[in-house]
Amino acid sequence: MRRPVSPPPRRPVVRGFRCAPVAAVVAVLAGCASSSRSTQPAYPAPAPGAPGTPGQPGLPPAPPATDPINRVDFAFLRTEANGILAELVAALPPLQQGRVANIPLIVDDTPGEVNACAACTETGRAAMAVSDGLFDIQAHLARARAHDEIGGTRKVDEYIALIAKHQQPKQPIIRPPAGFFDPALDVNPQKLTRQREVLDEQLAFVLGHELAHHYLGHLPCTGAGNLPIHEVGRVLSSAVPLFNQPNEIAADVSGLNDALTAGARRNGYHFTETGALLTLQFFGGLDQLTPADIVFAFERSHPPPALRVPIVQQTATAWRGTGGRGLPYPWF
């Protein structure tokens, strides 16, 4: 059962949003549309013969799905992300919380864009961004992980292989064909509950990481105050280093500590590192199975998953071993 949180404010949704493809001390908020979008984007059907959305020519129609994760309901996923972000901010110590109070979460609904970042505008306002493409992948990973745990399948590996084989750069995210998931297990109440838990853990890890960049001072702006929609499309003019591994590691550690702390405040299920490791498993699988030009921007902008996995594991172990306090990291 979820811990109740205040309803999040309506967040801007844009098409054309791009986070800088670097592991940045500063991420760039560039090329955004000036108008808000609130409708779910229509993903064009892939070429005939390739896996794709249910109902694609050559595939039998999928049975109707009512679960929002099963059907990849972007409105639900955006709302869930905003709720998780509110929990993450509420779980921070007062000083860090003050730095990111009311920070907006901007959503890019460009089909095929897979990314998340912390960002500043040219006027020094702080923001966070995430794409519907990343939500799409996280929903499928949560669904696949729940299938694997309850049904003894290997759907996570199969989904990663599917994306690695068929995904094309800057194209809509490939959807599993009809029959990929067992229809009977897909509506199992235990499975539906479990996939919601895993989804929330993934969101908490990704958003916790990007939020940490702000309160740890990795960007030259603060999170105080809301971001006016007319600023969403403005470009920040600032030098962006190609890679900053210490900052990325610090964001992983602090972000996961925050996620675990926020999860511990919930009634019922408490967050673990499962969602973080699942996210890294996905991008690590792409590293092994795809050429470099297929890799999503989100992966290019972070350290290799092979480096991040032991950091996540050690951070979670330390958090539990200290009774939820974590280690006394100098940046927190």
Can you characterise this structure?
The structure is a single chain. A hairpin with a 5-residue loop joins strand 3 and strand 4 (126-131). This protein is mainly α. It has helices spanning 74-90, 94-99, 132-151, 155-166, 183-186, 189-215, 245-264, 274-289, 297-300, 305-321, and strands at residues 13-14, 105-108, 116-120, 126-131. The chain has one domain. Mean pLDDT is 76; it is low at 1-9, 20-64 and 233-242. A 4-stranded mixed sheet has the order 1-2-4-3.
How are strands sequenced across the largest beta sheet? Answer: 1-2-4-3
The structural domain count equals: 1
Q: Which overall shape is indicated by the principal axes computed on the Cα atoms?
A: globular
Distance between the termini: 29 Å
Got a strand count?
Answer: 4
Q: Note poorly predicted spans.
A: 1-9, 20-64, 233-242
SSE arrangement, N to C: EHHEEEHHHHHHHH
Counting H and I runs of at least 4 residues, what is the number of helices?
10
Structural class: mainly alpha
Q: Which oligomerization state do the chains in this entry correspond to?
A: single chain
Gyration radius over CA: 19 Å
Share of β-strand residues: 5-15%
Overall average pLDDT: 76
Helices and strands in order:
Layout: E1 13-14, H1 74-90, H2 94-99, E2 105-108, E3 116-120, E4 126-131, H3 132-151, H4 155-166, H5 183-186, H6 189-215, H7 245-264, H8 274-289, H9 297-300, H10 305-321
Parallel strand pairs: 1-2, 2-4
Antiparallel strand pairs: 3-4
